# Entry
Amino acid sequence: MTGPPSFPPDAFHRIDDDDDAEFYSFPRPVVHIDAGAIAALGRLYAERVPVQGRVLDLMASWRSHLPESFAGRLVGLGMNAEEMADNPRIAEAIVHDLNREPRLPFDDAVFDAVLCAVSVQYLKRPVDVFREVRRVLRPAAPFVVAFSNRCFPEKAVALWRATTDEQHVALVETYIALAGGFGDRATRVFAPAEGNPLFAVWAARSGA
# Structure
């Protein structure tokens, strides 16, 4: 019987491993995906995110890509207060460094969905963070992780930089599996002939 997969010793090292608070101390109002990928992500959110739910945008920035139909309460947890203040969908913003402290500053089972868009590649302790996501989700609530082929390479972990787009999908699926407490995973790939590809992996919290 084999145990869970193990990661190489330097898997989560980064080119720039200085304190993230310095890197994110000033706003970067950029998006890592183009209009086509943003539209595809919005359609996915329209399918998976409860319209009236309380939703956590993990590693939030100045845009959340939720559809216009979303009428719930969005909580943003990110590294730059100014960026989140510029996000018209965020009702509550919390500055929090997940690489310094993976524990989420919320009670158990308080969110109807958790989103992580184009940011998973920066997590140094992704399995710990995903376990926390499971904790704060209500039963059957979804966790949606979306990513593309663009990033700030100096802050992406070595394992991400060394793997392909298809391997990124498998890697996120592995994080979810190792976190435990999630049901079956699903994947969607939006790969236009031109423009940014979009990959999404999602799973719902198990349990009653």
Notes: The chain has a mean pLDDT of 92. The two ends are 30 Å apart (CA to CA). Residues 6 and 178 are 10 Å apart (CA to CA). The first helix runs from residue 20 to 23.
